[in-house]
Amino acid sequence: MTAVAHSTRAVARERASFWTQRRRDNLVGYLFVAPALLGSIAFVLVPLALVGWYSLNEWNVLAGTFHFVGAQNYQQLLADEKLRDSLVATTWFAAGLVVLNLSLALLLAVLLNQKLRGTTVFRTLFFSPVLVSLVAWTLVWQLMLQPEGSVNSLLGFFGADGPNWLRGESTAMVSVIVVQVIKNVGLNMVLFLAALQGVPQPLYEAAKIDGAGAWTRFRRITVPLISPTILLTSIITIVGSLQVFAQIAVLTQGGPGTSTTVLIYYLYQQAFQFHHFGYGATISVLLFVIVAALTLLQWRMRRKWVLHET
Amino acid sequence: MTKLSRRLTALIVAGLFALTGCGGGSSAQSGPKSLRMTVWTANAAHLKLLNDIAAEYKASHPDVTEIKFDSVPADGYTTTLTTQIAGGNAPDLAWILEESAPDFVASGALAPVRGKIEKADELVPSATKLWEKDGELYAYPFSTSPFGLFVNTDLVKNASADWTWDQAIAAASASAAASGKAGLALPDFKYQNWAVLSAIWRGWGADAWSADGRSCGFSSTEMNDAMSFLHKAIFTDKAIPGPGTTVDFFAGDAAMAIGQISRAGALKDAKFGWTLLPLPSGPKGDYAVIGQAGIGVLKQSPNVEAATDFLAFLTNQANSAKLAQFFPPARSSLLNAETLAKSNPLIKAEQLQSVVIDGINKGVVKPSHQGQEELNQTIRAALDPLWKPDANVQSVLNDVCTKIKPLLEHK
User: What's the burial of B174, exposed, middle or buried (CB within 10 Å: 0-12/13-18/19+)?
Assistant: First the structure.
């Protein structure tokens, strides 16, 4: 046997030992996740990094200039009074939306979880707005909320004078919240329904035998057992409330005054209407930090109020 | 730094520059060219005329293979245009609204065009003012359209070209009370687009800011008088539809509407009688207000020369005469009732004379300022308290000035 043949066999052994079954499996696994991974890098991580980079620059789109300004946009953020107004509006909007949406969704889910005739129809009815085009939905509501619109006509039928919903500082915010709640409550309702149907019936029966009333059973059995779903829906709803844009743009355009200028609408104004792209990017960094902080906070708090979590 | 990391850094920087569109301008392309122009209109008749002219141009310019008119919705038009520019997808030519003119002209986003425009000297000075900087013209004043008063003569029998605003509002109020329909509609106002109100307040000699754009005009006596008149017309006389109410004059739902002649097309199949009058006179006498749009060539375009050449063709005397049926021309040679009547069959010659020709000659353009969008939003928000029955007009107007003072002084 020649030295060359020895050497060839050694290389072949080496190759054979490198491509072990485990490595092959790993490679297949990596190939499977590669499209999603590359997509995440290209369409999530790179845009995120770019937003961070833009926030350190002043970018005049019309003039085509792009200057590094360091922390200047962040200093402006701290001194911006309009930003404070929009944070207040955002807080009101998010609080109103979360409270109304979650409580209504849970109430509907409990009602529609009963074994009664017609519940399927009502489930479909409440879920159907989720499927409707957002802008079409909002435009229809804009007409309905006019001073002479159908909402006030309905109130008039009962002898009440409705306000000019989208023009009053307090009613405009309430209107936007209600329109959004009706649009999306069906989604949370379905999630709650699924959770409610997973609660073991024997627990309720045992509680009944022990003399527990309906409210006690709900508080002591239902809520703890569906708490993971409550956590999920609350995270989705809070994050969603901070990203509501189309409804504001169509219904109120941030007004009257600045009462409905929520953070994401203010971001849009600064970047796309006022052409302050660098500052707009800075606001979006702030929004990202707020969303991340709230999600993290909820995630941490789950240990205290979510059953099944350790 | 290793060779690999240097290469990576260079790649990232190049990528960033490519994405941010700051590669330092674009080089001219040779060979076949495709031009794209953004316009606000999606009207089939407007687009057909533009496409016909483009086809004629392409026939004599084989190097231009395509001229595409990209219809962008009027609502948010400028926002869409600037987003296209930011995304590195700037059109070669763009329709630019008067309120954005100062930003586009001052920023240097547009290429100079005066040298290419046929007989540029005959452009009416009041029409070119907004598009000039240091004696150069940066966009062709494509549509220079004075506001007039459309009147539904079925609802208002005694419409008169000699009306004062007091008489017009009294007629609108009486019509609204009698017919149950709206009185005077302000179609584009919607209690947000406040600049439309300049078509009224100019009659009182009021203006949003001083000629140099540095001082606020909202707290002036003239503005207070004009806005008090308007407030009374809305909330006391019920002559103007209140906030939040949508009314369509062109569907016959109102007695009158302030609008431009390009809107007359919507009355082609009207089931009611109508006429077009000049704006009523105010306490300071007769006046006119012009809404304007220009067409400019974006400096970022890789085809600046070809785009400028096409703009010159699109706006030469022959094509301006064709376009006059929709977009009143700024050329003095075409500004006569005879020429305009040929392409505006719906409007009588005397109406074209009094509303369009006299309007262009004596009119002032709607308020426009550098940073107009920020001013728009700030003023809109500050004016909102005015649109309530019990508003303190002077207090609201003073607040508008407080809010916009830093913006006016900064620009």
Answer: middle
In tens, the pLDDT along B299-344 reads 989 999 999 999 999 999 999 999 988 888 889 999 888 888 876 7
Give the model's pLDDT for residue A119: 84
Beta strands, E only, B112-238: 132-133, 136-137, 140-152, 182-185
pTM of the model: 0.84
Minimal Cα–Cα distance from A149 to chain B, Å? 9
Task: Identify which of B20, B380, B384 has the shortest CB distance to residue A66.
Answer: B20
- What is the distance of C-alpha A184 from the center of its chain? 11
CA distance B134 to B114: 12
- Yes or no, beta carbons of A63 and B371 under 8 Å apart: no
Which two three-digit tokens encode residue B177? 């009370």
CB atoms within 10 A of CB A260: 26
Separation between Cα atoms, residue B256 and residue A221, nearest integer Å = 65
Per residue in A215-247, pLDDT (tens digit) is 999 999 999 999 999 998 999 999 999 989 999
Spatial separation of the C-alpha atoms in residues A243 and A260, rounded to whole Å: 13
What per-residue confidence (pLDDT) applies to A265? Answer: 96
Q: Are B90 and B300 in contact (CB under 8 A)?
A: yes
**Residue in B closest to A269 by C-alpha:** B374
Average pLDDT of chain B to the nearest whole number: 89
- CA distances from residue B305 to B111, B259, B311, B312 in whole angstroms, order as listed: 9, 36, 10, 11
- Distance (Å, rounded) from C-alpha B301 to C-alpha A12? 58
Whether residue A64 and residue B380 make contact (CB cut-off 8 A), yes or no, is no
